[in-house]
Every structure is written in structure tokens, then in C-alpha cells.
Amino acid sequence: MNDNKNASMAVSAKIDADAKGFADTAVKTKKSSGALLGAAFLMATSAIGPGFLTQTSSFTGQHQASFGFVILASVLLAAIAQLNIWRVLCATGMRGQDIANKVLPGLGYFLSALIVLGGLVFNIGNVGGGALGFNTLLGIPTTVGYVLTGAIAIAVFLSKNAKGVMDTLVKVLGGVMIAVIFVVILIVKPPIGDAVVNTVVPSTGYGALFPAILTLLGGTVGGYITFSGAHRLIDAGMTGNDKLNEVTRSSVTGILIAALVRVFLFLAVLGVVAKGATLDAGNPAADAFRQGAGAIGYRFAGLVLLCAAVTSVIGAAYTSVSFLKTFNKKIADHENLWVIGFITVSTLVMILTGSPAALLIIAGAVNGLILPISLGISLVASQNKKIMGENYKHPTVLLVLGILVVIISAYVGITSLGNFSKLFS
């Protein structure tokens, strides 16, 4: 009897252990899936800020249907840059600054300084964009809007599960942007056939579109943006050669989400300008929505701008601090507090200055230099077995295409340095 009882207890214990194992695996799988999608949306929504909305609307007004080719070209170039950087970081489990220091001692500190400076200044602009969104949507005064934008972002990092809340919020707000812009497309009825044709064979010619392609490339994967999702995956433990397929899917998903929003916004604006309308240069996205869908369209523009600003504030703050935390254990131990401090400083500067125009000129020049440096560092690291490990092999096609993007983005960066002269004119 005792033997039977012991055998029964052993079987029961094994069943319980197996059930617990299955449950733990299911939880880990769910968390991994959430982190992969969250990283994709974090990257995409970091790219989709107030500047993104203005650039897309302005260029659509300028080039009309031919802007479809600009989107296609910039998405392909951005995908090449991001696939290279995410593979190198996640294969090694090292963040951008640590990879840079492995390539050349001290280079990581230089890269971090560029990222944090660019992230801080653009975050100030994002807070301003959030205030404009609140004003357009609800008529709230801009000063109050600055505070509300900062407060929403800070609330995320006051949570015990800040990264989980961040993943959820950027997915929800990203989904809201896509849905709202799609509704406007249905109202304005853009010439989709014309847009498709011009995406392949632009009526303006290819040469005239090159400056817009370069601008969009920097806005999609420039500065801190390309690192945002990769650093999130590293924090989630999605590292090592065995995770590269999942990392690649997450990277491509992020690019496609940003591309989807850009295509939708392009079509929404095209439906207005194709009818001969001229957009207000001061706020072209809101003006396009207003002209295309009336008062409700204008409110929709405010909602899109607000969602874009809040998610960009979160992405810029999180990624900027992630470039500091490996240099100092106190920053790593109190990461959320540093992120909150970063957002607070951004908000206070926006409140005190009211217009960060000069800072944005500096940030634009700095941001233009970051992509060729960060991508170049990643490509050099990808060929170093001491950094990558003996078993890692970087795809040759990604290496060659990555070098091409470094050359193109370096041209953009050098050109953007000319903007410094505007500070003293």
C-alpha cells in the first residue's frame, strides 16, 4: 500500500512539476512576444513624432503623388540600417555605447554624448508637439499642455512595471494613430492609383526627390531612434545568436509600422493637395486634415499629434538614459528616476523657453551625424570575432548595403552642419 501511495504521489508531483513548467514556459513566451512587439512599436512611435508629421505633410504638398517613391526609398534604406544595428547589438547583448567602446576605447562615451544631447533637445520639441496636440484637440492652453504631456510620460515610469506599461502604451497609441488617419483617408478619397504609379515611376523625376529621401532617412532611423527597440530587446533578455530570427522580425515590424503610418498620412494629405489645396506651412498636417475633413478632421489631427508626441517623449527619454546606465551603476539601479528626470528637464525647458528653435537647429545637425557613426560602428563590430564571438556570421548583403547607407547618411550629416550658421545669422 505504501509503495502504491508513494508511486501515486511521485506521479502527482511529476504532473504538477510538468504543469508548472508548461505554465512558466507560456508566461515566458507571452512576455517575449510582448517585448518583441513592444520593441517594434517603441522604435516606430519614436520615429513618428511631431517632426515626422510635419515632414510627411510638407513633402506631400510639395511633391504630391511622387512622394510615394520617397517613402519607398527611405523605408528600404532605414530597414538596411536598422537590421544591421539590431543584429549586432542583440547578438552580443551589448548596447550601442558598449559596442562602440569595444571598437575603439572612448568612442562609446562620444556616441552617448551625441545621443543624449540629440535626444534631450528633440524631447523638448516633442513636449511642445504634445502641447500643440492638446490645444488642437481640446483647446487647452499650450503652457498647460506642456505639463500634461510631461506628466503622462512620467506616469509611465512611476509604475513598478514601467517597461511593460511602456510597451502597452506605445502599442495602443500607435494603433490609435493608424486608425484615425485611416478614417481621414476614407473621407478625403485620395487618388490611390496615381500614388501607386508614382511610387515606382515618379512624375517629378528621381533627382528632385533625393533631398526628401535623405531627410526622411534621418527622421526614421536617425539619432536615438534606431537604438530604441534594440535596447528594449536587450533589457528583455532577447539576446544571442539563437534569438536573431525573432530580433529580425521585430526590427522589420518596427520599420513597417512607421512606414504604414507614413503611407497613410501621405494618402490623407494627398487627397487634399491633389484637389489643388495649399497647406499652411506652420502646421501642414493639421491644415490638411481640416481642409479634408472639416472641424472633426482638425480634432483628429490634434489626437494624432498628441499620440505622436507622447510616444516620442517616452522613446527619447528611455533610450537616452539607456545610453548612460552601463557607465554608472547608480543610474542602472535607479533607471526610472533618471528617465523621469530627463522628461522633467525637457518639460521645464519647454515651459521656460516657449520656443526651442535654436536648440532644434543644433539637434538637427547632431542627429544628422549620428546615423553614419552608429551604423559604421556596428558594421566594423560585425566583422570582429572578439566582439561578436567565433560562431557569428554577419550577412554579406547586409554589410555591403550597410556601407552604402553609411555613405549616404554621412553626406546628410555633413550637409546638416551648415545649419549651425543659422544660429549666428
Please count the beta strands (DSSP E, at least 2 residues each): 0
Sheet having the most strands: none
Q: How does the helix and strand content classify structurally? A: mainly alpha
What low-confidence regions span 5 or more consecutive residues with pLDDT below 50? 22-28
Radius of gyration equals: 23 Å
- Report the mean per-residue pLDDT as an integer: 84
Strand coverage percent: under 5%
Order of helices and strands: HHHHHHHHHHHHHHHHH
Describe the structure.
With 425 residues, this protein is mainly α. The protein has a single domain, classed as Amino acid/polyamine transporter I. 81% of the residues lie in helices and 0% in strands. The chain is built from 17 helices and no strands. The protein has helices spanning 2-47, 50-63, 67-92, 96-103, 107-138, 142-158, 162-188, 192-200, 210-221, 225-235, 244-273, 284-322, 329-333, 335-353, 357-382, 385-388, 396-416.
Overview features:
425 residues; mainly alpha; Amino acid/polyamine transporter I; 17 helices
